[in-house]
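Re: [ENG-882] Designed sequences occasionally contain unexpected residues at chain ends

Forwarding the minimal case from QA. Structure tokens:
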């Protein structure tokens, strides 16, 4: 009964914070349902313990609603993955995570941020376009569609300095 009441009252806005190794299993689970090839708990754990990895999460109570994960190197960052639960999509959560994450990366000295996005993923492309990313390259056949057909990745960049 207490769990039900907690879930009932924790339906407000998710709280954004830095992720820790304790979040690895939840991040891996969300990644697994969000992408064609999900990352394992072990893969996420290894990323989270690296000093050059930055990860933010969105939680509602104890439930992970979204995350964004990047790696820093030589003054640049690469966003490796962003995911939001289906129930929270289209409500601005990815934008909030991205904005927080970009501020943190800039604070850590990143002057540019890169990422790859499937050219057919219009919601993600719209998110990144609104956040100031621009296309700087293409990778044909980088992704695979559910049908098995190859899909092109767009390489995007945003300068932070």
């Amino acid at each position: 009964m207490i769990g039900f009441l907690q879930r009932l009252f924790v339906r407000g806005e998710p709280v954004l914070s830095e992720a820790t190794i304790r979040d690895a299993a939840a991040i891996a689970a969300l990644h697994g349902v969000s992408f064609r090839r999900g990352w394992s708990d072990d893969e996420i754990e290894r990323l989270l313990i690296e000093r050059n990895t930055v990860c933010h999460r969105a939680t509602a109570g104890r439930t992970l609603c979204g995350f964004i994960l990047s790696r820093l190197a030589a003054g640049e960052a690469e966003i490796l993955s962003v995911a939001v639960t289906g129930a929270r999509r289209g409500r601005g959560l990815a934008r909030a995570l991205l904005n927080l994450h970009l501020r943190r990366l800039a604070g850590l000295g990143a002057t540019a941020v890169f990422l790859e996005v499937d050219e057919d993923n219009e919601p993600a492309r719209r998110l990144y376009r609104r956040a100031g990313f621009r296309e700087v390259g293409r990778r044909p056949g980088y992704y695979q569609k559910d049908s098995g057909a190859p899909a092109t990745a767009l390489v995007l960049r945003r300068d932070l300095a």
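QA comment: On inspection the terminal residues look reasonable. The mean pLDDT is 92. Proposing we downgrade this to a documentation issue.
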